Recover the amino acids of this structure.
């Protein structure tokens, strides 16, 4: 069965420190992987995607993610966190066989000044 | 402005009273989808549409209906809402079925 796991409900990091939000997936075939961010009382906003090519993907607001096929992971990273990065982050995978999307349960990122 | 709009944004209703949540996009996207967001469960796909007159079930379709008569509109219909359908609902669209999705602002539904 297709699925996405975000093992951490919450990640706390100090401003200026690097951050990592973890995501692992299970999908048949080659995965299309996405990260989205949700600010309070807002819809989700696209951050970045991996479809093919370079395993390191760069996205909006200085975020990047590394696709690791052997570990079936797609962790979101940023070298230097900002307080304004505090939000809810979702990892998603597309099931190529059925045109469906599966989302993780979300990780709340808290960046403290 | 390119956007996905949903109406209403907030809705409180009673069990069994039919309701429709509208969704419209102005980006000429082919793919549209409905999700529900529940705490601890993330987003779960209800229905999706690859194009006009083509719809298919997502992971949690029970109790919902959709239609795609026009490319820009994708309404979500709850024919007989129940309390377990209390949730935050999002409509989304993408140019094709494999790219990034653009999300609407959400509809918070409460069924008593």
């Amino acid at each position: 069965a297709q699925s996405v796991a975000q093992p951490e409900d919450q990640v706390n990091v100090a401003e200026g420190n690097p951050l990592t939000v973890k995501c692992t997936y299970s999908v048949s075939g080659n995965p299309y992987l996405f990260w989205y961010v949700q600010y309070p009382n807002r819809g989700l906003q696209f951050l970045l995607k991996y479809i093919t090519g370079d395993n390191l993907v760069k996205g909006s607001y200085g975020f990047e993610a590394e696709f690791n096929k052997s570990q079936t992971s797609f962790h979101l990273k940023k070298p230097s966190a900002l307080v304004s990065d505090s939000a809810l982050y979702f990892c998603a995978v597309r099931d190529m066989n059925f045109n469906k999307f599966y989302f993780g349960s979300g990780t709340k990122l808290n960046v403290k000044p | 402005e390119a956007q996905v709009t949903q109406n209403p944004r907030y809705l409180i209703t009673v069990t069994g009273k039919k309701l429709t949540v509208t969704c419209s996009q102005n980006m000429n996207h082919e793919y549209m989808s409905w999700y529900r967001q529940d705490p601890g469960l993330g987003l779960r796909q209800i229905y999706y549409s690859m194009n006009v007159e083509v719809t298919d079930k997502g992971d949690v379709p029970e109790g919902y209906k959709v239609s795609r008569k026009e490319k820009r509109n994708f309404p979500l219909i709850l024919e007989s809402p129940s309390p377990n359908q209390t949730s935050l609902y999002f409509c989304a669209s993408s140019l094709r079925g494999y790219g990034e999705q653009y999300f609407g602002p959400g509809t918070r539904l409460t069924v008593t």
Notes: Residues 9 and 99 of chain B are 26 Å apart (CA to CA). The interface with chain A takes residues 4, 31, 33, 35, 40-45, 48, 50, 56, 58-59, 90, 92, 97-106 of chain B (CB under 8 Å).
